[in-house]
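lol ok so funny story. i was supposed to be doing the assay writeup but got distracted and ended up predicting the structure for this chain instead. priorities right. anyway since i did it might as well share w the group, maybe its usefull for someone
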Amino acid sequence: MPKDYVNEYEPLLIKGVKDPTSSKFPSKLLLLAMFATCIGGTFQCGYNISVINAPTKYVQDFINVTWTERYQSHISENGLTLLWSTIVSIFTLGGFTGVLIGSTLSVKLGRRGTLLTNNSFSLMAALLMGLSSTAGSFELLIIGRLLCGINAGVALCVEPMFLGEIAPTALRGAMGMGTSIFLTVGIFSGQVMGLKEILGREEDWALLLSTTCIPAFLQLLFLPWFPESPRYLLIDKGDEEGCKKALIQLHGVADSVGALQDIQREKDNLVGFKAKKPWELFADHSVRWQLLTVMLLNAAQQLNGVNAMYFYTHYVFQQSGIPADKIPYATIGTGACECITALTCGLLVERLGRKVLISGGYILMSVCCVLFTLTLALQDISPVFPYLSVVCVFAFVLSFGLGPGGVTNILTTELFTQTSRPAAFMIAGSINWLSFFFIGLVFPFIMIGLQHYSFLVFFVVCSSVAVYIILAVPETKNKSFVEIQHEFQSSRKKKGVSTDEAETLIISTSL
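and the output, tada:
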């Protein structure tokens, strides 16, 4: 291989001059940018996941009354269940749709432009759901929830991409944790807003569902003050001047030079390449292991049992002797736990690294699955075991928030370079939403078939993923996107690819 090639691309194969200990916490400006990005994104998603739970009975009564007024007959129990489950579950179908369009929009409109445009879905949803009671139309609820799902799908696809691209390399993990933190805060906020002391009364259920417009207005108010992703401006649009201005605004004059050089190196490495389509990513052997990894991690994020644990929460709290009218307050405790661990993960992710947190989280979840199974099976033996089950619920949620809940999206951002990242998020997001739908569909049958032993299925999932992460996923802390790609290629070389082939693979991406 020519020596000038080696000299030219040496920065891509080894770390540049970095001081990873220089800053471990984002500046005030970056924190404000994170807030403006996440408030209308994953906060909105988490809010819409949980806010629908409180008015369940009121919405079902509304459907019953509306049906009777229309058709002069009572709706059947199966019909009512079908309509209610449609209102709840169509959110996941909307999320899947949002992922499919989010990747394309992020290339055409930019990351920030897509997030701003995405608020139109939320505003339309708030209007339709707010008018549903007055109009006497449960169809408006179905359409509104579908639009909420589309908003969530686009946000979960584009938001972590945007945060990862505006953050300095040493703070990329901390910034990426904003996705998880705001998701959990959104879930917690939806639980709180559904309390009877706030908007959980029967006459307020339509107003409660329409409050989804508030985060949208906040994002439309704050996000325009921040620039588009510098990487998008330089690599996708070729706007060097716009990239420089964006970097100065986000990182300051002193740090913008090094960041610009890093982006320029990545651009040089991708000369002649356009943003890839998902099917092109599947055909690209150089990113096969990265793609397999993010597909596995995104599937596991839904199939690891955390949603099933939420399904069990009411039952466990009831068995523990907590009065029925107090269970909603106890359930809020699980949301608060996840918020705390998401914040903790945000503080630790740049110190301990991604691999330690996500593998450790899955190991702890595996242990909790076994203990939860034992406490459920032994509930009738001693009055102590119901309380131990409650402890297991909180421990399981804490373990999820500590690693898998926050690090998964960070890794999806970090394992791909600019031209592959939108397609990777489309694939990862599709797997995530389909897995979400699958677990909601299949878990009731697992529970009927295995009863107290249902969580042994999730033990297999969590322990298998933990083993895979430990053996196959490299640490990505304080590494550029190109360096991370090189690590995967180096691991392939150790498994039988010759040195020349590995070098050719890296160099060829720039030709």
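The chain is about 75% helix and 0% strand. The two ends are 14 Å apart (CA to CA).
back to the writeup now i swear
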